[in-house]
Write a structure and sequence with these properties.
The chain has 232 residues and is mostly helical. It has one domain. A two-stranded antiparallel ribbon has the order 1-2. β1 and β2 form a beta hairpin. The relative contact order is 0.15. The mean pLDDT is 95.
Length: 232
């Protein structure tokens, strides 16, 4: 897998213009705006305020639009039939998460931190409720967009993970494989931890992409490439 090629393809788009990349008005930037919002509360030392009455609607809007922009309200998705109110329990779960969850990135996937990530994923899934069929894709997209601590285990990422690392599902073994992959390719991953884009200016912020986010980009594009090759 050509990590740098994939990352640049994600950020800059493809040559035929079908995928414009991460411009301020393009859908990939929806991650930036969502991540910036939630991280601003963490950086101010008040993540619990995400669920305060005066912030709840805005918190739901940020999470909901990011998930919609990243494909989670398509087709038969249960969320497609719901309003923003459905995200209130999820925001409360995020606001009540262990402070350490906000600090975890791939370089510190210790056994204790992996257990914490799994508990966080279970809390988010429980907050959605069984009636909304919270798949690992949905749960990990929330964790990526809010905390930036795991890649989103969608179909493209899982396809590439299976081909590259021999793991396909969100579990401890997959996260351990990602940690080993990061250590092997640390230089190129760290070099591409680009700044997030600010809303509405589109300018760089002082906040950088996490290691997990960079891995998400690399594996997403790889899985997308593999999928397109199969259809040729």
């Amino acid at each position: 897998m050509d990590i740098e090629r994939n990352i640049l393809r994600f950020l800059r788009g493809d040559e035929d213009g079908k995928d414009p990349g991460r411009g301020p008005r393009d859908r990939y930037a929806s991650f930036d705006y969502c991540f910036n919002y939630f991280q601003s509360f963490r950086e101010d030392g008040r993540p619990e305020m995400l669920a305060a009455p005066e912030h709840m609607q805005t918190s739901c809007l940020h999470l909901g639009f990011y998930l919609a922009s990243w494909g989670m309200l398509r087709g038969s998705s249960a969320l497609l039939q719901r309003s923003l109110v459905v995200y209130e329990p999820v925001i409360r779960a995020i606001a009540g998460a262990d402070q350490l969850v906000w600090e975890i990135d791939v370089h510190c996937y210790t056994d204790a931190n992996l257990a914490l990530l799994l508990r966080c994923s279970q809390a988010i899934a429980a907050a959605f409720g069984a009636e909304h069929n919270p798949s690992p894709t949905l749960v990990t997209k929330v964790m990526l967009g809010v905390f930036g601590n795991v890649p989103a285990f969608d179909s493209f990422v899982c396809t590439a993970l299976g081909a590259e690392l021999g793991v396909r599902t969100f579990r401890v073994r997959a996260l351990q494989a990602l940690a080993a992959f990061y250590e092997t390719h640390r230089e190129v991953i760290e070099r591409h931890r680009v700044p997030t884009l600010a809303f509405p200016t589109g300018e760089d912020t002082c906040r950088r992409y996490t290691q997990a986010k960079v891995l998400d980009m690399a594996f997403f594009i790889e899985g997308q490439r593999m999928s397109r090759q199969r259809t040729l």
